[in-house]
Design brief:
Blueprint (H helix, E strand, L loop, with lengths): L21 H16 L6 H12 L3 H8 L8 H32 L6 H19 L8
Helix pairs in contact: 1-2, 1-3, 1-4, 4-5
Length: about 140
């Protein structure tokens, strides 16, 4: 279906912000880490084990959060998961910066300065977030 020039796509805006619990936030962190860490369909549990060892988190905690079974998350667990997620993001950005440097060395004509600058800015933002210990409270 195509819209004519006079028709508009209407999007309803929510009048109230959606309430998100710390358990939902932590589940999102865990799912994103597992998605990136896993190397395919059969690697989900090994990926959780690797993440658990790396960040000293129980694979059962990770699994409950990944499957959204956990309804609450205590402060210390949430902070450990948030710290792990921010560290994970920092590692991903560092990997990206390295890839950009490799691309620039292989192809010196490539204009990578904008990408490198944005990656550096993003890395600085993640490091700033790591310094901030304030966590969202359950509502």
């Amino acid at each position: 279906m195509t819209l004519s020039e006079n028709e508009h796509h209407v999007v309803k805006l929510k009048s109230e912000p959606e309430v998100v619990s710390r358990a939902e936030i932590a589940s999102g962190y865990v799912n994103r880490m597992v998605d990136v860490e896993s190397q395919g369909w059969g690697d989900v549990y090994p990926a959780m084990e690797r993440l658990g060892r790396r960040y000293r988190l129980s694979k059962w905690t990770l699994n409950h959060l990944r499957k959204r079974r956990a309804k609450t998350v205590d402060d210390s667990t949430f902070q450990r998961i948030r710290s792990a997620y921010l560290h994970f993001c920092e590692q991903q950005i560092s990997n990206l910066k390295h890839e950009l440097e490799v691309e620039r060395s292989v192809n010196p004509d490539a204009h990578m300065e904008d990408f490198e600058r944005e990656a550096s800015q993003l890395l600085a933002k993640v490091r700033e977030a790591k310094k901030t210990k304030e966590a969202p409270k359950d509502r």
